[in-house]
Each structure stands twice: as C-alpha cells, then as structure tokens.
Amino acid sequence: MKLDLNELKQKLKEIIVRDLKLIDITPEEIDDNAPLFGEGLGLDSLDAVELVVIIQKNFGVQIIDMEEGRKAFESIETLAKFILDRQKEDQNS
Amino acid sequence: MDPVLLKTSIITNNKASLPTQISRTLRRADEITNLCVAASYLTLNNYNDIITKYSTPEERSIVISTRFGPIETNFRYLDTIFDFGESQGSPTLFSHSVHNTASGYISRIFNFKGPIYTISSYSYPLIKALLTAITLLKQDLTKLVLVIETETKSNLLNNGIKDLLSIKDFSTFSYSIAWLLTNQTELVNNTGLVFNNISLEDLSSYKPIYNLFSDIILEYQNKIEYINSYQLSIKLSKYLEKSFYEDTENIYFKINSNIGIAKGEIYKYKKEVLQ
Amino acid sequence: MDKNNFVTILGSSAICAAGEDKESFFYNSVKQNGPKNCRAISEYLFETKLDFPAFFLGPKILNKDVIRFITPFLEKNELEHCPNRTVEILLRCLYNLLIDAQLEPKDIKNKTVGIVIGTTVGSTFNNESYYKAYREGKRPYPYAIKNYLLSNLAQVIQSVLEVRGPTMVINNACASGTDALGIASIWIKSGICDIAIAGGADELSKIAYLGFSNLQLTSKYPCKPFDAKRSGLNLGEGAALMLLCPYKKSTQTKGFILGYSCTADAYHPTAPHPKGEGLKNAIKNIIEQAGIKPKSIAMINAHGTGTIVNDLSESYAIEAVLGCNIPVVSTKGITGHCLGAAGAIEALWTIEALNNLICPGTIGLNKKDPKININAIIQGEKVSLKSNIGISQSLAFGGSNSCLLLMGKD
After folding, report:
1. In the prediction, which pLDDT does B46 show?
2. Using CB atoms within 10 A of its CB, is residue C133 exposed (0-12), middle (13-18) or buried (19+)?
3. Has the ipTM of the complex gone over 0.85?
4. CATH code at A16?
5. CATH number assigned to the domain comprising residue C72
6. A24 and chain B: CB distance < 8 Å anywhere?
7. What is the pTM of this model?
C-alpha cells in the first residue's frame, strides 16, 4: 500500500479507531503526536500485540518483537514514519 | 448464617444500557462477556453501597457456569487465521475465546478480588455453580458470591445438533442469569430466599440437555430490568421440575426454599434410580 | 494445625513430556540437564508454519490395558475412539490413578465420588476441519459435534467409573488444575462427597499454539523460567489426577492438602498485576488456613512460565510474603506450560519433592534475572528440604492466582 505520510497517518487513525474498537473518539480527534499508550489514547499491552498484527495485515510490515514495537508505537507520527521507512527498506532489499 | 439469595437478573440480549464507564471497558468484549457484565451490573447496581460497606474486595467471589462457553468467539478467532494467515490471528479474539475471560472483566469492573471461577458442564451448569458457591459460603471462604449461568447462540452448534440427532427443531440462544448470594446477615434484604440442603447427584449425564430455559427466558424476552428474586426462583424451580421430570435419568436434586413473603416449599426430588 | 482440616491424597498419577508416570517424571526432573521432548511441532499433532517449540507426548497415548479399561465406555456411547486427545490423555492418567490408589472400579462404583477436572483446550470445539467446511457453506457430517458433546472431562470419568456424585469442569485457564484440586478439597471438607477425583488434562492444540504466539507470549527457544535471558513460554500437554478423601492416616497416604486459596488481581485481561498483589493474598490465606508458621514452608513450586512479566511479578509476591531464602523451582522447564493440566501436574510433583525431601533446580535457569531476588534454584543444583511442607501455585490469564499448601506423607 503506497501512501504518503499524511495519507498514511489518516489511514492509521481510521484503522486504530475501527479495529481497536475505540468508542468515544473519532479519527479526526487523534493528535499526530499524542502518546498512544498509557496517557493519551490509553491503549494497553493487549492493544499493542493486536496493533502488531494490524500493521502486518494492512501494510505488510512485520514487527519482530515488542522492543521494536515500543519505539514505533509512541504516536501516530512515529508509527507512520516507521511504516514508510520499513516499506522502503523492504522494497530496496 | 446459611447462604441466602439476595437478587437475580436475566439478560436476553446484549444491548443492555450500561453506564459509559462500563461500556468503555467493554470495547473489545465479545457477546458472552457483554451478557455476563450486563447481568452483573443489573444485579449489583442497587446494592453498591451495602456491598462496599459490608465486604472487602477479597471477600467477593464469582462463579460463572456455561455449557459451551465463548464458542462463537473461538470461531471468530479461527476466521482471522483462515482469512489472514497463522501469524496474523487476532490476539484480542484469542484472549476472549478462553472460558474465563468474562469472569476477569467482572472482577475488574466491580472490584471482586476473591475466588473467581468459570465452570462448564453440559447438564445443569447453574446447579453446579450454586453448589460451589454454597460450599464457599458455608465454609466462610467468602462473603458474597455472584453466580452466573450464560450461553450464546451458535448457528454452527444448532445446525450440528439438528444434523446429529436428525431433528428439525433445536436452537440455543443468548442469555445470562445472575444470582447474588451471601452469608452475611447485614447483606440480607427482607425478600431473600434461603437455599440449604442442596444435594446434587449426577447419575449418568450423557444425554445433552436440550431444553435450555426456553420457557422462562421467552417470558422475559427483551425485558432488561430488575426481576424480583423470588418470582424468578419460583419460575426456575418450576423449570427445573419440568426438565427434571423430562430428564429423569440424568440428575436429581433436592432444594428446600423458604420464600420470604409467601412461605412455601418448593421441594423436588427423585426417587432412587440406581440401587 | 488442625488435622481435621487436612485432605488426604490417597493416590496420584501424572503423564507429561518429562515422564510417562510420576516416578519417571520426578526422577527426570532431578537427573535431566536440559529439556527433553521440546521441539518443533510434529506432523502427527498438527501442521503449522510457525516454529515455536512445544513439549509433547508421543503419537500413541493409549496402551492395551487402558483400551481394555475404557472399551465399555466407548461402546456405551457408540464411539470408536475417544472424543479427542485430551480425553485419551486423561483416561490413561485415570487408569494409572486407580492402580496407584490400589482401587478397582468395582470398589467405587455407585459411591458418591466428586469429580473436578481442570482444562482449557479440552472444553473447546477445536475441530478445525469441521469449522472450515462449515464456513465454506457445507454441512459436514456431525462426528465432530458428537465428540464435542461427549467430551466434558468430568462427565467422561463419571461415565467410565459409573459413579455418582457432583461433577464439574473448571475452566480457569492456567490455574484450572490447581483450582480443581482446591475445589475438590473444599467439597471433601463440606461432606458433599465421600471421595473425590481431581486434577487437570490438556492436549497441545493448534488453536492454543497460534493464540499464544499471536499474543507474543511464546518463545522460539526452550523456556527459561526466572532467567535473565528468558523470552517467553513453551506450551506442553499432559494430565495429573489425585484421589482425595477426608483426613485419615494410612500407609497408603501419599500426602495432604493443608490449604487452598484463589484470589483475583482485578487488573488486566492478560497480564498479571505487576507487583503480584493478588498472589500475595492467596499465599497469606493458605498459611492462615493451615495455621502454620511461614518458616515451616520448605519450598515453592512457582508458576514460572518463562515470560518476562509473569516471572517478575510472581517473584515480587513471593519475596513480599515469604522472603528470599525459601527455595523456588519451576517445573515448566521440563513439562512446558500444560495450561489446564499445569496446576495439577505441578501439585503432584511438589508432593513427590516433599516426600523425597529434595528440590532440584529449574531446567532452563542458568543465570537468574538480576531484578529477581527470590531463591530460584538454578539448573544442575538441588537443595535438601528442611520440612515436608510446600506451596504449589498458578497464575491465570484474566488475573486469577491459585495456591495450594501441600504436605508430604510423613
């Protein structure tokens, strides 16, 4: 799936609200830089492993372990950049 | 004091209106969890102050009983495996496909930190849950037990059983029934029922039980309200009498109950079948 | 210590990857210097593209004696085979239990026997090919349904032994086996049954295997409980059963259950409380129930799955209640995590350890995590026990903590 950064961020927000079943927030209300876990969106460790599967399914990017995941999942911004970087890497290899 | 039934509730669809805080916690929950939490909420709601005053979280227990458990959630998990591949199965669905997920939710939402159990039996799961709850109360291992029987509709199971038995008419449906029991005088309200002397003998429970509370539930269909405990108990006892006579080989039990306002005895037992 | 509160263990049996019976299981736990039967899934179990190792039993579970023992049960229910592999494992274990307790089926036929069995996989409809066909719109032949409806483990035992009494299957995830023994001991003490058969059984299932992998709880290597390099659990399969009765002294006694407690963390759907709050309460409860002093406890058989979070939170709880001297072991290094059977297998092993007064180290534990302060015995070492009282505990998905206080025969 080839998207630019802004399109990707929008798509991620929609996917997260839909697939993690967040009920009292819309994609538009998610701030690009707000923390996804703990404060901010308040996702937990079960959401984290679910997100790994969601990313793989929708963008073909595999997150090997939660150490890698932790950094990528800091915010929508970091996640989008992580995905784009990995997609570029996978393309080049 | 001897275990007493404080209150009961029935949910027959999982769209009960719950406070936002609880709905938020249920965002990932499946149908069976929703049913159990809704029944718990209805049962505990009016008793919150008394429960907090007269018990600590460690003195509150849960026993959930079921025949088939979260069977459809298990299939939804399998769907993700078949649709997207083995490494892309949904961990959320898997974690909800284990039988004891609903009890975990109830313990978190309502702050129950005593023993929490989920049991399964094809015959009379509620009776077995009551047996466990009553022994916990009689041995003073807890002060308050929330007993729930629950089931969810499964088309696969309904069709499969029809095929297996070559019958046209069989359907399970989704419901949960909660009973709140206590052994604390302070927690008893005046319309409490006293259950004692439940003796439970399972003879040869190999015939699956088909008549799943259908009469009682249909009567209360779509009524998501508090139902007076002794009315329900009478209905349930009559149901139990009915299926008891229909499945006389399978189980016999004895319940003495003293209904607060209308004193009477609902007492059913079966004569010895085996020597 | 009020002896009338003890529950006597008249017989016990187990089968797991580390041994076909309890004697070889315990012997191997002392003698082995690494995990055995822990490898990539074999074809006779199921096909999968994932390659996490698991502990499994061989392809053939039933032998001639067990088949003879269960033939009337199969015929009565018009079955050619056991409804599933979990039932096979359970019934082999049941056969050995009767031998160990020196009982024949006719001795207990028509007696009031309580039966409480813990399982996870054993209660699920896990016939993959039936579901696949169904979702493709086909109406497959309902053998799978029949097997499913005849597979309630407690009712299977009741039917095989032709006994009367309350029966129940406990589905408390990883604590089911411990809870089954505990609830059966409560039933015994309440007098609702004369004797009880309790324990747990679980087979390795593809669904559970994939599920735990998707949750990122499994390790690509044999598990390393409490180790600095631990990276997750391995699944296993097996069963363990005990025959329980009210307190009595007899030469046949294998040991005693002195206490049992189950508490809930009320914290998270899959992770334990980080400081082990619920577990602390459960440990305190059993000590209080039995009326013993904490220092008379000689060892703890921990849940010790080898996941990062479990081992750490569990160690905090043990440290807070019992300190850092008491020897701690996890047998999952040689059995894997047998889910519903785990608690029962581990309780049985603990009785063996208490009767032999030794506690071998944890296979897989070479260098303890520096954050873990408890006295987890490392692989290759063993300690002599100063008493024959010990704890066996389990922590379940969903936040249950179950503890048994056990004592050897004398």
Report:
1. 75
2. middle
3. yes
4. 1.10.1200.10
5. 3.40.47.10
6. yes
7. 0.91
